[in-house]
């Protein structure tokens, strides 16, 4: 199985930004944790982070016919991007939405997720473990 993990704006600043919400663990630790579990599950993995909506759209388009699943934390684009929603719908790759924090118990605008309607599952408030759960879910349910 091949999984693409995409992280949106400022996820690379985890451990630096809003430690009271996101904790003190770094983005590098997140990536190492994801890579380790992917290896244990025999998943071929690629990770990608961008602060630019168009770059994320391009990456999802490039995933078409290449990846079996996508794990995405669109970050702020969760609440604003119809473009990311549309491209996830277009490629028809099983996609799991992940959020490190509990978006439903934060500001009201964070309760809105455009991408959620195109995802096979949504995971929030699990910290870094949400990414692991997402990969395991895809592996258990979509591994060809």
Automatic annotation (TrEMBL):
Keywords noted in UniProt: Amino-acid biosynthesis, Aromatic amino acid biosynthesis, Lyase
Pfam families: DHquinase_II
Listed pathway(s): Metabolic intermediate biosynthesis; chorismate biosynthesis; chorismate from D-erythrose 4-phosphate and phosphoenolpyruvate: step 3/7
GO molecular function: 3-dehydroquinate dehydratase activity
Site label Transition state stabilizer, positions: 17
Enzyme Commission code(s) on record: 4.2.1.10
Record: residues binding substrate: 73, 79, 86, 100-101, 110
EC category: lyase
Catalytic residues (positions): 22 (proton acceptor), 99 (proton donor)
Top-rank taxon, per record: Bacteria
Catalytic activities: 3-dehydroquinate = 3-dehydroshikimate + H2O
InterPro entries, per the entry: DHquinase_II (IPR001874), DHquinase_II_sf (IPR036441)
GO BP terms: amino acid biosynthetic process; aromatic amino acid family biosynthetic process; chorismate biosynthetic process; quinate catabolic process
Function, as annotated: Catalyzes a trans-dehydration via an enolate intermediate.
PANTHER family: CATABOLIC 3-DEHYDROQUINASE
Homology family: Belongs to the type-II 3-dehydroquinase family.
HAMAP family recorded: AroQ
Subunit structure: Homododecamer.
Protein's name in the database: 3-dehydroquinate dehydratase
């Amino acid at each position: 199985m091949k999984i693409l993990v995409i992280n949106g704006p400022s996820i690379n600043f985890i451990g630096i930004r809003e430690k009271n919400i996101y904790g003190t663990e770094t983005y590098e630790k997140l990536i190492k944790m994801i890579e380790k579990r992917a290896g244990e599950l025999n998943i071929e993995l690629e990770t990608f982070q961008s602060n630019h909506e168009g770059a994320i759209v391009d990456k999802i388009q490039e995933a078409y016919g290449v990846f079996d699943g996508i794990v995405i934390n669109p970050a702020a684009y969760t609440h604003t991007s119809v473009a990311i929603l549309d491209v996830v719908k277009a490629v028809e790759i099983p996609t799991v939405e992940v959020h490190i924090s509990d978006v439903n118990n934060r500001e009201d605008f964070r309760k809105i997720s455009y991408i959620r309607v195109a995802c096979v599952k949504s995971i929030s408030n699990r910290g870094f473990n949400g990414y692991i759960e997402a990969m395991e879910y895809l592996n258990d349910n979509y591994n060809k």
